[in-house]
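Entry type: protein chain
Record version: 2
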Amino acid sequence: MFGSDSRQDFSDDRGSRRGLFAVIAALCAAAVAVTLITVNTTSGDDGKRPDLAAAADSSAAGKTVGYFTNWGVYQRNYHVKNIETSGSADKLTHINYAFGNVQGGKCTVGDSYADHEKAYTAEQSVDGQADTWDQPLRGNFNQLLKLKKKHPNLKVLWSFGGWSWSKGFTEAAKNPDAFAESCFNLVNDPRWKGLFDGIDIDWEYPNACGLGCDTSGRDAFTNLMKSLRGKFGDKLVTAAITGDASKDGKMQAADYKSAAQYVDWYLPMTYDYFGAFDQQGPTAPHSPLDDYNGIPKESFSTAAAIARLVMSGVPRDKVLMGLGFYGRGWSGVTQSEPGGTATGPAPGTYEQGIEDYEVLKTRCPATGKVGGTAYAHCGDQWWSYDTPETLHGKVDWAKHHKLGGTFLWELSGDTPDGELIKAIR
């Protein structure tokens, strides 16, 4: 998951390799699963979507998890109240609050001002009540408590790490019990008592490379999650994980199967597969549901990632499908269909090559579909993003394959009236 820097990097994977026979077995299993899972998954099929190779453990749990970013209150001007006024709060089952930091082997506050100090006026507040100068808790945390009061069934988890702050997990993995203790104490700090229902870990990436490279070993992630479960007990413990199911990819670097017994669910980041970090292209949708003819890299898709997890032994009801509320784009593109060349990233409001759905739906409307998602060619720009129509298809796919639900990155990319989230449930 991206933090202040929003690129999810799938390049230069240096994860440790298993023995030859284990690799061959895993790849063969994943290949079978991908074949089964991708048949008839694109839009316009006959509606017959075959099950995964194994029988489902249970029916879809129907979770809808939305990430809310603490930095969104600044330039984006997106606040907890927007979750309410957009109608998103009525659709969500869980909110992941992003991000807490990981420093010195401990969980730490990411942005104290946004998190618990910023004062809200009556107009900005969820319940219409202004903060006072002397109240003990303000900021997003107080607003989220007010939101939970309006929606008693809504759960909130504090997510730690993300793209920018994942380097700290290498130190944390050296003493996972001490790390879990620090996280438990912070999440349950008396100042925001009753706010958090658990913890989400976003380590990019265990025993592999993201913004930096981790060499903690294949078992480090499992040991970390085991310690967190031991400390958090029956509270929620979840993890955002890589969506890279390619040969020798990041999903092979850590033992996600063994760690699955300690988590309530995984959130595989099934987006950011392609983008203008490859400045000359080829153009390709950043969040394809399945592989398609001409995809630049095989198994860079939602179906491939989920298939590999399930075939490795992760229960499908512990797997949520990742959905992006934003697009990735190039400029200098003349070809309308995917596979074109480019000269660089398209302009974006906050970062080149990235733009919110809210902006793209009118600035560069979708002109086609491929791999179960949408793309758009306008002028010399080429963008890919999900629309309400393609989200319907993805969610139907997730329900058919009896996954645990969906999650979205992130809430501020939607329209003010929640056009995308209303297409999910």
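Comment: Residues 20-319+388-423 form a domain with the TIM Barrel fold (CATH 3.20.20.80).
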